[in-house]
Design goal:
The chain has 286 residues and is α+β, with helices and mostly antiparallel strands. The protein has two domains: 90 residues; 122 residues. Helices cover 29% and strands 37% of the residues. It is built from four helices and 17 strands. The protein has a nine-stranded antiparallel sheet. A five-stranded antiparallel sheet has the order 1-5-4-3-2. It is elongated.
C-alpha cells in the first residue's frame, strides 16, 4: 500500500476541519431557523456551503486514503452530481427570490432585502453575525424591477424602487442613532430651523418641512412625512417619495440645551438615476 506523505495528511486534515466547520454552520442555521425564523442574509449561501462541504470531503478522501482508480472515478462522479444538483437548486431559487444585499462603507452593517419575484413582495431583514438575518417588515408597496441602494451615512441606507404602476418609493434602513440614543426622537423637531447649501434651503417648522431647491419651494405637512428609525425621514407627494432627509453622524440636536443643533444633515433626491446626497449646515432658528 502506498504511504501517504506528511504534507498530504496535513492538507487532508485541514480540509476535514473546514468541512466540519461548514457542516456545523449549516446545522446551526437549521436550529436558528426553526427556533427564531433566522435565514441566511443571502439564501444562496446555503447551496454554496453544501457545494463546499462536498468538495472538501472529496479532497479528504483523496488525501487521507489510498483510493484506487475505480473508486476515484466513482467518488468524483458522485461529487460532480451533487455539485450540479446544488447548483441547479441555487439557480432555481435565484429565479424566484431576488436578493438585494449591500454592505456599509465601514463594513459594519449589511442592508438586506429579499423580493419574491412572483408576488412582487419585498421584505427588509436585520442581520446578525454578518451572514444571518431575520425578517423585520415588508416594504409598504409592491415592487417591480431594479433596486437602487445608496448609503447616505455609514448607518443609513436608502433603497429606491418602483412599483408595478411606476410609482417611485424609498425605504430607509437605519442602523444607528444620534445623541446617544437614550430615547426615541423625531427628526423634524430635531432639525427645527433653516439649513442651507449653495442652491437652496431646508426649513423645518411646526407645520412641516419645506424645501427650497434651485428657487422652487416645496412644502410637506407632517402627514406626508414618513420617519425611519430616529435618523431619517422620507417626504411624500401624491403617494410617491420625493426627498429623503438624514441626520449625519456629526449631527447633534442639543434638544436639552438652549444651543441650536450642530453638525450636518443630508438631503437626497429620490430618483432611480445615480445621484449624491447634498450636505447642509444649520443657518438659523427663524
Amino acid at each position: 500500500m502506498k504511504q501517504i506523505s506528511k504534507n498530504r495528511k496535513i492538507a487532508g486534515w485541514l480540509f476535514l476541519l473546514m468541512a466540519i466547520g461548514l457542516f456545523c454552520i449549516q446545522m446551526g442555521y437549521f436550529i436558528l431557523r426553526a427556533k427564531y425564523d433566522v435565514e441566511y442574509a443571502d439564501n444562496r449561501i446555503f447551496y454554496l456551503l453544501n457545494i463546499l462541504i462536498v468538495i472538501f470531503m472529496g479532497m479528504v478522501l483523496f488525501l487521507l486514503l489510498s483510493v484506487t482508480k475505480k473508486w476515484k472515478i466513482i467518488i468524483t462522479s458522485i461529487i460532480v452530481m451533487i455539485v450540479v444538483l446544488q447548483g441547479g437548486l441555487l439557480v432555481s431559487h435565484s429565479s424566484k427570490i431576488k436578493h438585494v444585499v449591500s454592505i456599509s462603507p465601514d463594513f459594519r452593517h449589511v442592508n438586506v432585502i429579499k423580493e419574491n419575484r412572483v408576488l412582487g413582495l419585498a421584505t427588509y431583514y436585520r442581520t446578525y453575525f454578518g451572514i444571518f438575518a431575520r425578517p423585520k417588515e415588508e416594504l409598504p408597496y409592491n415592487t417591480k424591477g431594479a433596486f437602487k441602494v445608496k448609503w447616505l451615512e455609514k448607518d443609513i441606507a436608502a433603497v429606491t424602487y418602483l412599483t408595478p404602476d411606476r410609482e417611485l418609493h424609498q425605504y430607509i434602513g437605519t442602523y444607528g442613532d444620534r445623541n446617544g440614543g437614550y430615547s426615541y426622537s423625531y427628526v423634524g423637531p430635531s432639525i427645527q430651523g433653516k439649513w442651507g447649501w449653495e442652491n437652496g434651503r431646508v426649513i423645518s417648522a411646526p407645520e412641516g418641512i419645506a424645501i427650497d431647491y434651485n428657487g422652487e419651494m416645496e412644502s410637506y405637512g407632517w402627514e406626508n412625512i414618513v420617519q425611519f428609525g430616529t435618523i431619517a425621514v422620507v417626504l411624500m407627494e401624491n403617494n410617491q417619495a420625493k426627498w429623503t432627509i438624514a441626520l449625519n453622524e456629526n449631527f447633534k440636536s442639543n434638544s436639552n440645551e438652549p444651543a441650536p443643533p450642530t453638525g450636518e444633515i443630508s438631503l437626497y433626491k429620490v430618483t432611480m438615476d445615480e445621484n449624491e446626497p447634498i450636505k447642509l449646515e444649520f443657518l438659523t432658528t427663524n
